């Protein structure tokens, strides 16, 4: 299976509408891929907090329209990254969209772990509550977004729900790039799954982005890694390696669940 991770550059010099169209053209250029992935909040920038409310859109808004058409034109499964979604009740969410090759919306995921430590995204957006998996013809994917990567419980839940490929869209800052790589490998090893982690390039809201999108196999081996600038990271991977790894080294079977907290 071939995946293409589009590490798009996000900065204030380009309009949101213009970036949508440019991203759609990049997606159409990946017609040979089985799965195409875009980063988190690439329309606005993950740290451009003051634009979330003004650029928020409904689930079926302009990004949905442009990305659905691009997925259909390319004939690919498209994880279109995430958007600032405005729910009908007015709540904002950081919501990922996944389209089938037909252009139909196949899944959406509202980010569960919001970043900001009681400011920024953590107070501006609501929290999702439901982990999401989606069965593709070749593999079952589990969806996660950026800060989610720091919470292994979510990824274990996705694995228990059948996920074999964990897809992470992100707007990860350069100053914590070492954590990005380390955590992507850790999530792959502990779940014996592929991790496809796609970040942004550029600088937005004064925050340099890490780039370095990465694909990790179930043994923790890095199959491909991007540089710091805008690029499309293409990689071939074998979904059959996941069940083979889990059978060869059946660590998941040895989990001990329901442990009580230590006594004080």
Automatic annotation (TrEMBL):
It comes from the Bacteria. The keyword RNA-binding does not apply. Keywords: Hydrolase. Pfam families: CN_hydrolase (PF00795). The lineage of its organism: Bacteria, Bacillati, Actinomycetota, Actinomycetes, Kitasatosporales. This is Carbon-nitrogen family hydrolase. InterPro entries: C-N_Hydrolase (IPR003010), C-N_Hydrolase_sf (IPR036526), UPF0012_CS (IPR001110). SUPFAM superfamilies: Carbon-nitrogen hydrolase (SSF56317).
């Amino acid at each position: 299976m071939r995946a293409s991770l589009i590490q798009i550059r996000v900065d204030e010099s380009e309009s949101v509408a213009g970036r949508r169209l440019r991203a759609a053209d990049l997606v159409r250029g990946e017609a040979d891929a089985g799965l195409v992935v875009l980063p988190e909040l690439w329309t606005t920038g993950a740290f451009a907090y003051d634009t979330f409310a003004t650029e928020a859109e409904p689930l079926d808004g302009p990004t949905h329209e442009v990305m659905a058409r691009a997925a259909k034109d390319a004939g690919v499964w498209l994880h279109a990254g995430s958007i600032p979604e405005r729910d009908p009740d007015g709540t904002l969410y950081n919501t990922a969209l996944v389209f089938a090759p037909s252009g139909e919306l196949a899944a959406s995921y509202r980010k569960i772990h919001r970043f900001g430590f009681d400011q920024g995204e953590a107070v501006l957006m609501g929290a999702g509550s439901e982990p999401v998996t989606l069965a593709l013809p070749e593999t079952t994917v589990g969806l996660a977004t950026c800060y989610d990567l720091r919470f292994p419980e979510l990824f274990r839940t996705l694995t228990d729900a059948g996920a074999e490929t964990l897809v992470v869209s992100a707007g990860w800052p350069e100053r914590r790039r070492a954590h990005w790589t380390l955590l992507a490998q850790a999530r792959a090893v502990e779940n014996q799954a592929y991790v496809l982690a796609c970040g942004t390039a550029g600088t937005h809201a004064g925050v340099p982005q890490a780039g370095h999108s990465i694909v990790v196999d179930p043994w923790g081996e890095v199959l491909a890694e991007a540089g710091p600038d805008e690029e499309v990271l293409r990689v071939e991977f074998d979904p059959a390696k996941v069940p083979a790894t889990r059978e060869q080294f059946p660590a998941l079977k040895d989990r001990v669940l329901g442990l009580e907290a230590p006594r004080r």
